[in-house]
Amino acid sequence: MKNIVTLFLILSSSIGFSQDADEILNRVISKINLVKDYSVDVNIKADIPLIKILPVKASIYFKQKDKFKVVSKGIAILPKQGFTDVNSFLMKKNSYMAVDGGVKTIDNVKTNLITVIPTNENSEFVLAKLWVDTKNDLILKSQITTRSSGTVSVDYSYGSEAEYGLPNQLVFDIDVKKFKLPKSVAADLNKTEKEKAKKNKNKDQKGTITIKLTNYKINKGIKDEFFKDKN
Asked: Could you tell me the residue range of the domain that residue 115 belongs to?
């Protein structure tokens, strides 16, 4: 009898955490759903070991649910984990379970850590951790592990478009050895850099990508055909 009571308490506790997590994510998703489409100007600065690349200006276009396009004259290293990928995944409510990990403080802001676990073992997403400012229903930090790009951590900052859940800056921390870089960037390593890479092949190589977003145009209407055009 004692074991049954203990099991009941554990299950009740787990269900409570899950319900809290679902409620938090539902509020975040509701804010995301306010945006039917947007365009925004971005400045991308990549600080990646062994690779020399200048800051790049680009424009991003998005339309619900998962249409996404980048227009740039340069090489834009743009991790999608902080843009459409996470949002699209969260909207598929039947494809994951969410667990509330309790209150965590980030830069003096209280957040709830939500761990998102895919229910499909073949999912591209392996695990997602989201630190959510529950007062404003905003994701302040995420840590996304995928099969193709390893683990990517993202810090979010918000400005005038916070009411739509749209950030004005994203800072990505990536594992260079696992992250998929554009082929033209990966091939642009000189012999000296390659020798350094060989010497440090067993060491973690971390990189940072900072993206600043300005001049949002939200819900102005973007035709589907636009996303089929070549950049």
From this structure: 2-221
